[in-house]
Write a structure and sequence with these properties.
The protein is mostly beta strands. The protein contains two helices and 35 strands.
């Protein structure tokens, strides 16, 4: 059973009048890989400067060298040990190991620093409808190798959930925070002995998001009031001040943007019951077809404006939080850089068509999607 950490609550001292935050624009990449990806689901810098990239559409994990443009494959496509189907996020583990979220095989596979397969962990813990059941989709891993996730499954969906810290070495799990969930749209089909259920979030929902710094501090990006709370590794919570945000109205362009993003990146979890035999399927993006998706969008009730943040939040190796801000469709992406006090230390804007996918000792890794939908990997120097 997860045990709850006692959270001591600290309030920040009254803030001084707000001042304009330093702004930086990342204009030219320090390095760019010529290789064309169908998608970049995860990026993880290795100690020697090479980078692991997961391409879930091409079904491959590549080890790339931006300096020499050379690349090789880690593991291979399939269902056996050391194989994967639709590799997704990548997380660093101690000893230069890497954890691959293998959506197609519903498991977490671990490869050592040399790229050799070591072990796998099932994403589904327990059986649906048979007592304790949970899905482990890692959101972060700290420097000690502890895995952080929001448990899915195990009964009716509430409006909030917990963030679990799982220490694989000791087998102990702790609850470190509680976060607000987005409201969901549920669709069911089939008969009594052949039920199929699918869920997806309402468009542009106000929801909490979070990330974990290497030292185990958890950053909670709150909604609908935009602020950042920090929870220390010992469980002490520091509540941040509200961060000013300008509302971004939702027009037809923003609706199409949301549709395209969900089609490409939305996580799909489907459960099927055939005569009492329950099976689950995980995938990235939707396979319903453009026609059905367009009908869904046309029939959906849309909010008047986007939330302040998109939900993408990452912690850099130096512990600084990068929060992607909402903007008009097609605009360059801007990130708030947040320090341990919960205040914005700097704002960084990328060139149009770019999005941060990871960090390393050598800089910020960015995915560039061109007009044809081709993905490229770029590295930018850390803003100073």
């Amino acid at each position: 059973m997860p045990r709850r950490c006692l959270l001591a609550l600290l309030s920040l001292a009254a803030a001084a009048p707000a001042a304009a935050q330093p702004e930086a624009k990342l204009v030219r990449p320090a390095a760019r890989l010529a290789h064309q990806f169908s998608t970049i689901g995860g990026a993880r810098e290795l100690a020697d400067g090479r980078v692991l990239i997961a391409d879930g559409i091409d079904n491959v994990v590549l080890r790339v060298d931006l300096a020499t443009q050379k690349l090789d494959t880690v593991g291979r496509s399939g269902q056996g040990p050391g194989e994967y189907k639709a590799p997704d996020a990548l997380f660093p583990l101690p000893g230069q190991a890497t954890m691959v979220v293998d959506l197609g095989n519903a498991r977490l596979s671990i490869f050592d620093g040399a790229g050799k397969y070591r072990e796998s962990i099932p994403i589904a813990q327990g059986q649906p409808g048979q007592g304790a059941f949970s899905l482990i989709f890692p959101r972060a891993v700290d420097a000690a190798g502890r895995i952080y996730y929001q448990p899915l499954g195990g009964g009716p969906r509430a409006d909030s959930t917990v963030v679990i810290r799982w220490d694989r070495a000791s087998g102990r799990s702790d609850t470190v925070a509680r976060v607000k969930l987005p409201s969901m749209i549920t669709k069911e089909s089939g008969g009594p002995n052949n039920r199929n259920m699918r869920q997806r979030p309402t468009p542009y929902p106000p929801q909490d998001s979070w990330a974990v710094a290497p030292d185990g501090r958890v950053a909670l990006v709150r909604a609908p009031v935009y602020r950042v709370d920090w929870v220390s590794a010992a469980g002490v919570r520091t509540v941040g001040k509200p961060i000013p945000a300008v509302a971004v109205p939702i027009r037809e362009a923003e609706k199409k943007e949301y549709q395209a993003d969900q089609a490409a990146n939305g996580l799909s979890v489907s459960m099927e019951n055939r005569n009492g035999q329950v099976s689950m399927n995980f995938s990235r993006g939707r396979s319903d077809g453009a026609r059905e998706e367009a009908e869904d969008i046309a029939a959906t009730e849309w909010p008047a404006a986007k939330p302040a943040a998109t939900g993408l939040v990452l912690a850099a190796p130096d512990g600084i939080l990068w929060i992607e801000r909402s903007g008009p469709a097609g605009a360059a992406r801007t990130y708030d850089l947040i320090g341990p006090d919960g205040a914005v230390a700097r704002r960084v804007t990328l060139p149009v068509g770019r999005r941060v996918v990871g960090f390393g000792a050598r800089g910020v890794y960015v995915r560039h999607i061109d007009a044809d939908g081709i993905n490229y990997l770029e590295r930018y120097d850390q803003p100073k």
